[in-house]
Amino acid sequence: MITSFTDLAQASGVCKKWKQGVKQSLARRESLSFSGRKMDDDSTARLVRYAYSLKDLDISRSRWGCQITDDGLYRISLAKCVSNLISISLWGMTGITDKGVVQLISRAQSLQHLNIGGTFITDESLFAIADSCPHLKTIVLWSCRHVTESGLLVLVNKCGKLESINVWGTRIPVDCFIGLFTISPALQIKTGGLLLNVGSTSLWPIV
């Protein structure tokens, strides 16, 4: 009996019949979440590759110790479904860098929701997101301490559909928000326990 995604990935390598069975079980899935599971580059990339209809991919940090690296993100980026992904979560993936994120994001042109909070990405990733994800609506940058005002300005300027940014725990100065609201008055910014929307001249505490 197959009880985990890792087992499922291993089963796909047993023989052609088993591989076909795994493909059929994943082909119509629109959502895959590996959060809370111990996954590695090989097993994750293999399963994503078989999920042809995938729209929502969650490979957030596992409490068992996620082992996904930049190489894993590169291999995932080669999957056919990546160009159709609407939502991606890489929350807490401290083992990845701009190199892997840029590779993955460069093929995710349909992306609307992205969570890369708790990672060590820099403005390089934000520039790639700005260039590759014109449909982006929400982004979580919680505790991304290496992103700067420059990256956010480019992001908001190029992603015209952006509705919400979470910058809680970053080092972005408050003065930067004025520039962001100038570009996009309806933008909502979550920071320091507050939801800012200068377009409606309001500050709402996050409940």
UniProtKB/TrEMBL annotation:
Coiled-coil region(s): none
Species this protein is from: Carpinus fangiana
Annotated GO CC locations: SCF ubiquitin ligase complex
Biological process terms in GO annotation: SCF-dependent proteasomal ubiquitin-dependent protein catabolic process
Alphabetized InterPro entries for the sequence: FBXL15_LRR, Leu-rich_rpt_Cys-con_subtyp, LRR_dom_sf
PANTHER family given in the database record: PARTNER OF PAIRED, ISOFORM B-RELATED (PTHR13318)
SUPFAM superfamilies: RNI-like
F-box/LRR-repeat protein 15-like leucin rich repeat domain span: 76-162
Gene3D superfamilies per record: Ribonuclease Inhibitor
Protein name: F-box/LRR-repeat protein 15-like leucin rich repeat domain-containing protein
